[in-house]
Amino acid sequence: MTPNATPVSAAPSRRRFLASTAVAAAAVAGGMPLLTACGGGGGEGRKEGTTSGKEAKKILPTYVASNVVAPDIPAKNGSAAGFVKPIDLKNLKTAVPEKLGRGGKLKIMAPFWGTPPSNGNPYYRAMNEAIGVQVTWQNQDGNTYDEKLGAVLASSDIPDVVVVPGWNLNGKIPSAINAKFADLGEFLSGDKVKEYPNLAAVPTDAWQRSIFGGRLRAIPMPAPYVTDIAPLYRKDIFDKEGYEPPASAADFLSWAKEATNARAKVWACDDMKWTAFTVFGVLPGSDKALWWNRVDGKLVNRVETEEYLEALEWTRKLYAAGVVHPDAKAGGNQGNAGNRFTAGQVLVYSQNISDLWGKTAEQRTHNKDFEMGAMDIWGHDGGDPTLWAVQPANIFTFVSKKASKEQIRDFLAIANFCASPYGTKEYMLTVFGVEGTDYTVKDGVPTKTPQGINEVNGAFDYTGDPAAYIAHPDLPEIARQQVEWQQRMGAFTKKSTFYGLTVTEPSRWANLADDFEQLEDDVVRGRKKISDVQQAVSDWKKQGGDDLRGWYQKLLDDNGSAS
Q1: What is the DSSP string of 215-262?
Q2: How does DSSP classify residue 12?
Q3: DSSP strand E in 311-392: where?
Q4: What's the short name of a Pfam family annotated to this entry (predicted)?
């Protein structure tokens, strides 16, 4: 799955987390709420709500843009920045002119997919030496990380530093964050962050998401706020057959019927539910706070909207017409959608935009004619789409409250080093490791060795990241496609009422909407009806939805919106 040259979005690591098909699918699943413990006004004991407005301004770091390396394509409309020229390995810039680490020791717990490398490997040793901190990694199985995280936070034995993916912020974990992790504001709020220039260049929106319990507790992973789910299509087959990308929901269904040939084992698409949500302008499903938006002075939840029902009905029609691959209908297993796509069994599937690089790099090694693209999201009626911003950070790294000030400073030295921008010496070490051991260079393109693929993966790059960017040294044209797609879609993207805020819902309502995702899947596959969704919405309102609306309204009245 991992191609030779490793760009910014290869999986699985914090900097490149969402390129993994499995992780990306999990991250966008509506059943995985990204709810975190935030208090208003800085109250240490408050476990519900959020912090914004004047209170947040007192906490947030001062933003100072980096001028170390200029991107080839500047960020615009909420996109990542893009680097599409070969990386100049002979003229790398310096982002950290002197060691900030003070020689201390830290234990860091993080998720890992695969077999973790030993702590004494050349990459870990080189990073420790360059930063001036001795790190011991406690890598845990990413598939069961939430269970391990819950057990660790419930104990008194917490590592010095802990990585927490947003989709693991559920159950008792959010409330434990306030109690177990340190306030970093003493070191980062306001102009204090200037001691760490690479962290000062992290966008304010990402820092806003790092306020937990009224305190700045985390180092965030900045992300574009443009939707990361795209309808990806086989451009090579489209060109061969003379197909044009559809321009409306009706066009797509009409084309899908024409393109499907079950006898030849070719279906137009895999499950398209997530594309349907964007096409019909449904509020995003990756964070329950984003399920709410103020419309005509009243907060409305995504499940109450006509757009939500229309998206489900359109997806149901695709299944009913027989244009969806039967494996998707049978099990709804999106983990294999990409394989069905590269095999030519489906021509379109919904997935993270990073798959545009991942699948292209994978296929180019043995199928030179393979070409895919990302369709621009169309409005369901053929007009401009209405898209909604996703959260600007979804992975966080915390420091234990038991850590000394010296340990916190050592951790910030790591974060600042790892947040160095593309095109610097620090970036090359963080992302590619040790030349000759972890990667080699051919025709100016750094290429990971098998050792580098295993070792330079899911460790130091969890602790800090620059502003969102895309760079693929092996396939720069794909980086351009991804960034330009984000910028085009960003032009139609709006920020909903609770964009940029980290919200903890009261525990009595935390599981109120948990059954909707399964119901959605049952409806689109013909096992349930739209009327069942309408009944579920009615039940949801009576069982606490209307009360939750009132709670969100008070939250908005008290704190205001960050957008």
Answers
A1: EE-EEEEE--SS--EEEEE-HHHHHHHT----SSHHHHHHHHHHH-BG
A2: S
A3: 346-352, 373-374, 387-388
A4: SBP_bac_8
> Residue 394: in which H helix or E strand, if any?
strand 393-399
Give 28's contacts (C-beta < 8 A, 6+ positions apart).
Answer: 228, 229, 274, 285, 286, 352
Sign of torsion, CA 75 34 10 464? Answer: positive
Say whether 434 sits in a helix, a strand or coil.
coil
Residue 54 CB coordination number (10 Å): 10
Q: How far, in Å, CA of 144 to CA of 311, rounded?
A: 32
Amino acid 172: pLDDT: 79
CA dihedral 215, 217, 221, 223 (to 10 degrees): -10
Using alpha carbons, list the distances in angstroms from residue 270 to 76, 242, 274, 339, 358: 31, 21, 11, 11, 18
What is the tens place of the pLDDT at every residue in 239-296? 999 999 999 999 999 999 999 999 999 999 999 999 999 999 999 987 889 999 999 9
With bands split at pLDDT 50, 70 and 90, how would you rate the model's confidence at 333? low
Task: Give the model's pLDDT for residue 245.
Answer: 96
pLDDT for 474-523, tens place per residue? Answer: 899 999 999 999 999 999 999 999 999 888 788 888 789 989 999 999 99
The pairing of beta strand 445-448 with beta strand 439-442: antiparallel
Rounded CA gap, 221 and 14, in Å?
7
DSSP at 509: G
Give yes or no for a cis peptide into 33 (omega within 30° of 0): no
DSSP label of 319: H
| Mean per-residue pLDDT of the chain | 89
- For residue 512, report the phi and psi dihedrals to the nearest 5 degrees: -60, -35
